[in-house]
Design a protein that fits this description.
This protein has 241 residues and is α/β, with parallel strands linked by helices. The chain contains nine helices and five strands. Helix 6 (160-168) links the parallel strand 3 (143-146) and strand 4. The protein starts with 9 loop residues before the first helix and ends in a 10-residue tail after the last helix. This is Sugar phosphate isomerase/epimerase.
Length: 241
C-alpha cells in the first residue's frame, strides 16, 4: 500500500527513530504514540499485511506460508504488533535518554481482540491492523491513553485489565474524550470519568474546535473543565484558554 510504511522493515524503524530523535532535539517534553490514524484505510482489512518481513515472521512463528495457505488475520496483526513493539522499545530508550516521557495509546481490543471492523475494534477503518502486546507497552511507557469511542457513555469496564496493570506499575492512565465527534465535553461524561479511580487524566480531543468554533459550542464552561482537571489531580495555572 503506497505511502504506508511497514513496521517490519529495519529502514522504516530507522526512519521513525530519526523522527523521534528530531523531536527530542527540538525540545519537546515527550512523544505520544498513537496507532489510530488517517492514512491506513483499506477496503478489506483481512487481506492486508503481506509484506515480506510479515510473511517471513509468520512462517517462523506458526509454520505457515501465508502466500500459499490461508492466514489467520489476528495472527498477522500480532506479528505486526511484535515489530511495532520492538520499535517502541527502541524509541522509549531514546526518549528516556533525553529525560523525556513516553505516552502510548491502547484500547480494549488490545486485551480482548476480535476479528471485527466496528468502532473500537482492531479492524476499524482508522486502525492499522496491529495487535500489540499491551503489557509490554505499559512496561515501556510512562503514561497510557485509552483511545475509545465511548459515544458519550463512559464505560469503566473497557480496558479494565490495562487500567489495573498500569495502576499497579504506577503509570498514569488517561481517558480519551471526543469533543467534536461525540460531544463528550459535558458534566455527565466528565463526572463518570472522575468516578473511575483507575483513571488519572482526560485527553480533550479536538478541544479548540468545541470551544472556539461558533457552530460547535460546548455545554460546559472552561472553568468547569478546570474544576474536573483539578479533581483528577491537575493544577492548571490561571484560566484555561
Amino acid at each position: 500500500m503506497a505511502g504506508t510504511p511497514c513496521e517490519g522493515y529495519p529502514e522504516v524503524t530507522d526512519y521513525w527513530l530519526r523522527q523521534v530523535k528530531n523531536a527530542m532535539e527540538m525540545g519537546f517534553d515527550g512523544v505520544d504514540f498513537r496507532l489510530q490514524n488517517h492514512s491506513s484505510m483499506v477496503t478489506d482489512y483481512v487481506e492486508y499485511g503481506y509484506n515480506e518481513p510479515i510473511v517471513a515472521r509468520y512462517r517462523d512463528k506458526y509454520g505457515v506460508d501465508i502466500l500459499q495457505e490461508e492466514a489467520d488475520p489476528l495472527k498477522i496483526m500480532q506479528v505486526r504488533g511484535a515489530f511495532y513493539a520492538d520499535f517502541l522499545e527502541q524509541a522509549a530508550s531514546l526518549i528516556h535518554s533525553y529525560g523525556k516521557k513516553v505516552q502510548v495509546h491502547l484500547r480494549h481490543a488490545n486485551e480482548a481482540p476480535t476479528l471485527n471492523d466496528e468502532f473500537n475494534e482492531l479492524g476499524f477503518w482508522a486502525m492499522p491492523k496491529v495487535q500489540v502486546d499491551w503489557k509490554r507497552v505499559v512496561d515501556l511507557a510512562d503514561e497510557i491513553t485509552l483511545k475509545h469511542y465511548y459515544h458519550n457513555a463512559y464505560d469503566t469496564a473497557m480496558a479494565a485489565q490495562i487500567k489495573r496493570y498500569a495502576n499497579a506499575k504506577n503509570k498514569r492512565v488517561w481517558v480519551h474524550a471526543y469533543i467534536q465527534q461525540a460531544g463528550e465535553l459535558n458534566e455527565g461524561f466528565l463526572d463518570a470519568v472522575e468516578q473511575d479511580s483507575a483513571v488519572q487524566g482526560i485527553l480533550l480531543y479536538e478541544f479548540s474546535n468545541a470551544i472556539f468554533q461558533p457552530r460547535r459550542k460546548s455545554d460546559v464552561s472552561l472553568n468547569t473543565v478546570r474544576y474536573h482537571l483539578e479533581k483528577l489531580g491537575f493544577s492548571p495555572p490561571g484560566d484555561i484558554r
